Amino acid sequence: MMLQYSAVGIQNESHMALDISDYWKDLERLETSIGYAVWNCSLDLPVKLVTISEGGIGGWCLGGGDEHIRIAREVVPEIPGKETEFLGKICKEHGIYLIAQMIAKTPDIMKDRIFNIAFIIDPKGEVIHQHIKTSFYQRETNTAPSDIWNVYLEKYGDDPEKLLEALYPVAKTEIGNIGTLICAEGSYPEAARGLALNGAEIISRTMDGESDESDSKSVSCDLQYLLCACPKYWRNLYAWRGGFQNE
Q1: How far apart are CA 135 and CA 186, in angstroms?
Q2: b vs e for 17-42, b when ≥16 Cβ sit within 10 Å of the residue's Cβ?
Q3: Structural domain count of the chain
Q4: Is residue 1 in some structural domain?
Q5: What are the tens digits of pLDDT across the range 93-110?
Q6: Residue 32 falls within a domain, yes or no?
């Protein structure tokens, strides 16, 4: 394990995707932002880990009901796909691990459904980790594992260890064992402990929204950070979204 390196969180403005082209607007901007962040933040230790916020690529809540199926078929990308290949080239160029999130489809789990997915790309440009968001805040219209639990039981069986690995996967890398949480999941310490049981040393929580240090949301998040970081060997990394351009 590489013991000393820098980690960077990108706080970018993004688009709530109405079309796949909105994903690419965000990706092209992130190419510049990531390049500058790696250059600027490597003055002391080399940057080896970069993370992007929830909603940082194409937004996070694209539509429910009948729109859900249309969006799954016509709007959202697949992971892996052209979008992750583009990010993979950036990872290879800079020699970094990238943690990001997209609303995307994963036919291996279920067709015609959209999921909120965190993923990790390694310095070789390969997707080495995918995590589907398990718990939502308010009216998020994506599919959670609990919505299709019968599908998980058919795919992974009822073995608790296999289900835990499916719900809270951990990527074993040279810079540490990395697990991901997405926004509201950090409200529940059980999610972070699920990652710990699978060997996580670094927990990245991609976040949507902006927070002022004086508001109640920030105080609540501070408490959640403490709950998720209780074991002394964990390292937490958070990235907040900078805003939506089509707001």
Answers
A1: 9
A2: beeeebbbbbbebbeebbeebbeeee
A3: 1
A4: no
A5: 999 999 999 999 999 999
A6: yes
C-alpha atoms less than 13 angstroms from C-alpha of 101 in its C-beta half-sphere: 35
Tell me the C-alpha distance between 121 and 92, whole Å: 10
Structure tokens belonging to residue 102: 């997209």
- Residue 118 half-sphere exposure toward CB, CA atoms < 13 A: 30
Pairing mode, if any, of strands 47-52 and 97-104? parallel
- Stretch (H or E) spanning 107: none
Spatial CA neighbour of 96 closest among 3, 204, 174: 174
170 Cβ contact list (under 8 Å, min separation 6) = 129, 177, 178, 179, 195, 198, 199, 200
Residue 244: is its pLDDT beyond 80?
no
As given in the structure block, the two tokens for residue 178 are 């990395």
Look at residue 197 in the predicted model and tell me its pLDDT.
Answer: 92
143 assigned to some structural domain: yes
Cα–Cα dist 70/119, whole Å:
23
Domain that holds residue 225: 6-244
The answer to whether position 232 is within a domain reads yes
Q: What share of the chain is helix, strand, coil (3-state, %, to 5)?
A: 35, 25, 40
Q: Which is nearest to 36 in space by CA: 50, 18, 53?
A: 50
Whether the model clears a pTM of 0.85, i.e. scores above it, the answer is: yes
CATH number of the domain to which 117 belongs:
3.60.110.10
Rounded Cα distance, 118 and 153, in Å: 22
DSSP 210: -
